[in-house]
Design a protein that fits this description.
The chain folds into 3 domains: 106 residues, Chitobiase/beta-hexosaminidase domain 2-like (Chitobiase, domain 2); 337 residues, Glycosidases (TIM Barrel), CATH 3.20.20; 150 residues, Alpha-d-glucuronidase, C-terminal Domain (Alpha-Beta Complex), CATH 3.90.1330. 39% of the residues lie in helices and 10% in strands. The chain contains 21 helices and 16 strands. The protein has an 8-stranded parallel β-barrel. Strands 2-1-3-5-4-6 form a 6-stranded mixed sheet. Helix 14 packs across helix 15. The protein starts with a helix and ends with a helix. Bound molecules: 4-O-methyl-beta-D-glucopyranuronic acid.
Length: 707
């Protein structure tokens, strides 16, 4: 025995350690969170409310495709959250989640009402899709630990078309995409249906998004070929039960390049016929097709002006083709600007589109970027909002952070979206906010919409930066209800996605709420704009003075010289400020302009006195330094929540924050050192001097430009 004992002991030891290894492996792999499940995690709740414990079934009026997915989502979620399997039934004989169609429910055709009746949780709506949205809303209440005893939530979306715009190309790349390649496997479709399509639809439906433009606005006509339309139809089939319609961006010159016609002139009868037939072909395959999105005569894309026609003529060609299909709309983008060295790009979309107000068919919406230039970290609202009483305007926000540090910088964008939506246009007196223009209440638009340029891609966690998911989430929630606050949306997202620990929730919420202003400070404080790396749009490049077009340089925008800095858009120069209502002009006049917008509208001396008591130069430096300090605070805050966050996710965000800190310093040093060559003033007392020279910093930019 004595002889065998050590042997047996070692076998037992080996077995035990193997077992321990497997247990450890299993426990880490169940904890490791790769972010794929987004805000639909459904992990077991630590405390299950009694009403949930007593549930036995899910009652649904029918097993239509929409109600089937709603009931199955509830079933999967409740199983995950509580461990209970609820039976999906037609009639109730025990405590249940009851889905009920009620034609007189006081909500609109997509809205829902959640309530409790005895031991039941009741979702009622006028339509099936309302019940689907209500199901996700109920799950949100459960996941964020709201007391179900008092359940009483009524909600209806404020705008009709709530869309993602994918700038995805048929070769798999995504223009301005930072989270991998396209989600759509064009070579495999329509035969192979990636299960991820369904998860994409679930995620969107859960936040009320009801449409998706599948391809880039710099469009390829290939998407209109019979081969590709079958692929598009296959995606539409997956999305339909989730209330999501597909739309396509169209290439204006397709009649010529694809149809073989001699022209793409929008007034040519052959061209009109071609579009009518193409549209018919699409509706034969996709009966609920959403419509067309168009970028025309912008950044080299073809358009009606190639034939001396207007944007309204171009839009009419498509709106007429869509007339037989009442649900189909044209979304015509207003993002146009000519390369005029003496012009002001700020004004060009306005000048082009304002005279066309009233000239579009009722099934056309004009899609306007939130600001007049291009998705900068801060922009004033686009002057077209409030200026097109007879043309429904769709808001276009950008979720992919083209100018906000791609997927490496943390920037929670709800405050940016809200800042624009809450801006007062004064179109019909005080209170005519951009949001109320968009939802039709100011001008009585019959059609309404909001679009977000998607930040999704093939990365396992969908958005590259794990916190980028919050921007997708926030966009959907605000498109549904722009009155929600940024902090409420952040809290919801954190609780659904990261943790329900109160202390960690408030720390992360604080990080998110400060992140965008922090980024503005280290990139473009005080109203600076468009001073980033050429073409790639990454990193600082304020010295950029030569490019293919003047309005693709930085000096065009900051106009810094020895006297001062900023773009004078007042009466004495470009007059762009004059495009706004008198009240807005007053609020942004030199006397009243808040520091955040100052250099958007005024060229001011370096010694200009600021509300802080500092002169402009000193304030500018302080803001850049504050931006870097802000990122350091984000890092400390993130470190403090480590114990509450999944280790994989924690490490991922920590790594990105360290990049962000390094790059905030890069922005700070580049901008402060470059502007100093003009201001000829010292870095203010109390701020450490950059440890490198301007020449050294310039080289960093060059690295990103090497081919
Ligand atoms: O911001 C610019 C981007 C382009 C984009 C364009 C647009 C799709 O740099 O990549 O093209 O805007 O919105 O059309």
């Amino acid at each position: 025995m004595a002889f065998f004992y050590p042997f047996r002991k070692s076998i037992i030891f080996q077995r035990l350690s193997q077992l321990l290894f497997v247990v450890l492996l299993f426990s880490t792999s169940t904890r490791a969170d790769d972010g794929y499940r987004l805000w639909l995690k459904y992990d077991r709740l630590t405390k299950v409310q009694p009403i949930l414990q007593n549930l036995q079934g899910i009652i649904t009026p029918s097993d239509s495709p929409i109600l089937k997915v709603a009931a199955e989502e509830l079933q999967t979620a409740i199983k995950g959250l509580t461990g209970k399997t609820l039976a999906i039934q037609k009639t109730a004989n025990s405590a249940s989640i009851i889905l009920k169609i009620n034609p007189s429910e006081g909500v609109n055709n997509e809205g829902y009402h959640l309530s409790r009746s005895l031991g039941n949780l009741v979702i009622s709506a006028q339509t099936e899709v309302g019940l689907l949205y209500g199901s996700f809303a109920l799950l949100r209440e459960i996941q964020t630990l709201q007391p179900l005893e008092k359940l009483n939530v009524t909600s209806s979306p404020k705008v009709q078309h709530r869309l993602l715009n994918h700038w995805d190309n048929n070769n798999g790349s995504i223009e301005r995409g930072y989270a991998g390649s396209t989600l759509w496997h064009w070579f495999d479709l329509p035969d192979v249906i990636d299960p991820r399509y369904r998860d994409y639809a679930r995620a969107n439906a859960s936040i009320g998004i009801n449409g998706t433009v599948l391809n880039n606005v710099n469009a390829s006509a290939r998407f209109l070929t019979p081969e590709y339309l079958k692929k598009v139809a296959a995606l539409a089939d997956v999305f339909r039960p989730y209330g999501i319609k597909v739309y396509l961006s169209v290439f204006f010159a397709a009649p010529k390049t694809l149809g073989g016609l001699k022209t793409s002139d929008p007034l040519d009868p052959e061209v009109k016929r071609w579009w009518a037939e193409k549209t018919k072909e699409i509706y034969t395959l996709i009966p609920d097709f959403g419509g067309y999105l168009v970028k025309a005569n912008s950044e080299g894309e073809p358009g009606p002006q190639d034939y001396n026609r207007t944007h309204a003529d171009g839009a009419r060609m498509l709106s007429e083709a869509l007339m037989p299909y009442p649900q189909g709309v044209v979304m015509w983008r207003s993002f146009v600007y000519k390369a005029d060295p003496n012009g002001d790009r700020f004004k060009e979309g306005y000048e082009e589109f304002k005279p066309l107000d009233g000239k579009f068919d009722p099934n056309v919406l004009v899609q306007v970027k939130n600001g007049p230039i291009d998705f900068q970290p801060r922009e004033p609202f686009h002057p077209l909002f409030g200026a097109m009483p007879q043309t429904p305007l769709v808001m276009e926000f950008q979720l992919t952070q083209e100018y906000l540090g791609f997927a490496t910088h943390l920037a929670y964008m709800a405050p940016l979206f809200k800042e624009c939506l809450d801006s007062d246009t004064y179109a019909k007196g005080k209170g005519s906010t951009v949001a109320k223009v968009i939802d039709g209440s100011v001008h009585g638009y019959q059609k309404t919409g909001m679009a977000g340029v998607a930040n999704t891609g093939s990365d396992r966690n969908w958005t590259g930066h794990p916190m980028g998911q919050a921007n997708w989430y926030a966009f959907g929630r605000l498109a549904w209800n722009y009155s929600l606050s940024s902090d409420k949306i952040a809290e919801e997202w954190i609780r659904l996605t990261l943790t329900n620990d109160n202390k960690a929730v408030s720390t992360i919420q604080d990080m998110m709420l400060h992140s965008r202003e922090t980024l503005v400070n280290y990139m473009t404080p005080l109203g600076l704009h468009h001073i980033m790396g050429n073409s790639l749009h990454y990193g600082p490049n304020p010295w950029l003075a030569k490019n293919a077009r003047p309005d693709w340089t930085s000096v065009y925008y900051h106009k810094a010289d020895e006297k001062g800095i900023g773009f004078d858009r007042t009466e004495s120069s470009s007059k762009a400020l004059g495009l706004y209502a008198p009240e807005v002009q007053k609020q942004w006049s030199l006397a009243a302009c808040p520091p955040e917008y100052l250099l958007w509208f005024h060229h001011v001396p370096w010694t200009h006195p600021m509300p802080s008591g500092r002169i402009l130069w000193d304030e500018l430096c302080h803001r850049y330094y504050e931006g870097v300090a802000g990122v350091a605070r984000l890092q400390l805050q993130w470190d403090s929540v480590k114990s509450q966050i999944d280790p994989e996710l924690f490490t991922n965000v920590k790594g990105r924050l360290s990049i962000q800190h390094r790059e905030a310093l890069w922005w700070r040093d580049a901008c402060v050192l470059y502007f100093q060559t003009l201001s000829k003033r010292p870095i203010p007392e109390g701020l450490e001097k950059p440890t490198r020279t301007l020449e050294e910093v310039k080289k960093l930019v060059d690295v990103y430009q090497i081919r």
